[in-house]
Design goal:
Helix 5 packs antiparallel against helix 6 and helix 7 runs parallel beside helix 8. The mean pLDDT is 96. It contains 13 helices and 17 strands. The structure holds zinc ion (ZN). Zinc ion (ZN) binds next to loops.
Length: 450
């Protein structure tokens, strides 16, 4: 018996805690997990002093190809993601162009990602009034699920889903056994307030917060709970920004509705005061909320009410962030930093346990999106790992960023917990600050049970 790879002396983060174990890998999968494995292996990695976590599964990135490679590319975005411990990303149907709303656009995006992705990947498709008759074909093509916008999007090619589209689409998706993720903000209120403030010359950060008040999220989440319950569709609320919306979803799930929350690192790391200081670089929608909400959102993380944390890595050309806050592009680059951010602000500062962290950053998304072999360290799963030095402190510098544009809200911040190595299916992708292998990302199709 001989293995391809043996990882020795690691603190392996399993479902119930870190355990000192060796990991043997064969054919890219975890073949054995046990103390002191002595069988021979072609390669041995000594992980003494490091924690080995499941690689990050990021369910929400915008790598913008094909069509907007001046904003971000799959090559650069996924490279940065790998440097942050990432091993599976799920790309959104925008801001690539054409948007991923028909099988041809899906095939075009798949071709780019299959060539350039540094990590494994799955793909969202879009639910719009014009894609309702294409859901079956997109499901066949391997879409992990569908994304819809309750509000207006601000980019072409992905119209908001009106109530008929949501209702009819959710019934179809329930039959196809695929989930819907919704950007849940009330369209009319957000548009009306934006127009009112624009006309009045109210263009500052505080005005932007006021243009998207909390009711625009909670009202919309309430309606989606109703739609989910009636149609039986699995629903994820994208980037939930308020603790009140999380409570609504928790209560609905307790009544048997199949609905979960995603939240994003920047709602946890920052509040409105930070946004005023950081400017349009910190603009996203829904907006980053006030300090009290930030504290309550952390409580929702610690209570286990939020299913997973994504980056919502949503870059743009830097020039689109210039000008008045209300009119600047909304979107934040982040996928390289989610794991260090959560190690710092979650584990080091708030006693978030490592097993809970790995569920939030990998396990729950792997399970809820039914990605075979992804998201856990267990025999039979893919050998996708982030090797982390929990004690290492570092300050993120712009030159450390591997995105297309070296811009991030997190530059200048001190982190405690650094990614030393990322491994994809048993092969090292990133090691001590450097990418060390060619792109080898594979497309992951979700398991469908109907
Ligand atoms: Zn997004």
């Amino acid at each position: 018996m001989s293995y391809d790879l043996l990882i020795k002396n690691a603190e392996v983060v399993l479902d119930n805690g870190p355990v000192r174990l060796d990991i043997a890998v064969g054919d890219g999968k975890i073949a054995c997990l046990r103390e002191n494995i002595t069988e021979p292996a072609a390669e041995t990695v000594d992980a003494a002093g490091l924690h080995v976590l499941p690689g990050v599964v990021d369910a929400h990135v915008h790598f913008d190809e094909p069509g907007r490679s001046e904003w971000e590319t799959v090559a650069d975005g996924s490279t940065a993601f790998a440097a942050g411990g990432g091993t599976v990303f799920i790309d959104m149907p925008l801001n690539s162009f054409p948007t991923t709303c028909d099988p041809e656009a899906f095939a075009a995006k798949l071709a780019v990602a299959a060539k350039d992705a540094r990590t494994d990947f799955a793909l969202w498709a879009g639910l719009t009034p014009y894609s309702l008759d294409k859901l079956e074909a997109l499901a066949e093509a391997g879409a992990v699920g569908f994304k819809a916008f309750a509000c207006f999007t601000g980019v072409g090619g992905i119209d908001r889903a009106d109530d008929y589209t949501l209702y009819a689409g959710m019934k179809k998706l329930a039959a196809l056994d695929l989930p819907l993720m919704v950007h849940a903000e009330n369209a009319e209120i957000t548009r009306g307030l934006t127009e009112e403030f624009t006309a009045a010359g109210r263009l500052r950060a505080r005005d932007y917060f006021a243009s998207r008040p909390i009711i625009t999220e909670t009202e919309n989440v309430g309606r989606l709970i109703h739609f989910a319950g009636e149609t039986g569709c699995r629903v994820f609320i994208a980037h939930v920004s308020t603790a009140r919306a999380v409570t609504l979803v928790t209560e609905a799930r307790a009544r048997g509705v199949d609905i979960h929350c995603e939240t994003i690192g920047h709602y946890l790391a920052f509040n409105e005061d930070d946004v005023e200081r950081l400017g349009a670089a910190a603009k996203c929608s829904p907006p980053i909320r006030n300090r009290e909400n930030q504290t309550r959102l952390w409580a929702k993380i610690l209570s286990g009410e939020i299913a997973f944390i994504s980056s919502d890595h949503s870059p743009c050309e830097p020039s689109l962030k210039e000008g008045p806050f209300l009119q600047a592009w909304g979107g934040i680059t982040a996928c390289q930093s989610t794991l260090p951010l959560m190690l710092t602000f979650g584990c080091a500062e708030r006693a978030l346990g490592l097993p809970a962290l790995t569920r939030l950053l990998a396990g729950n998304a792997g399970e809820l999106f039914r990605l075979p072999g992804k998201g856990r360290i267990a025999v039979g799963y893919d050998a996708d790992f982030a090797f982390v030095d929990l004690g290492r402190e570092f300050t993120l510098r712009a030159e450390d960023l591997l995105y297309k544009h070296q811009v991030s809200l997190y530059t200048g911040y001190a982190f405690r917990g650094a990614v030393r190595r990322t491994m994809l299916r048993g092969r090292t992708v990133f090691l001590d600050g450097k990418i060390v292998s060619a792109p080898q990302g594979r497309f992951v199709r979700p398991e469908r049970r109907k």
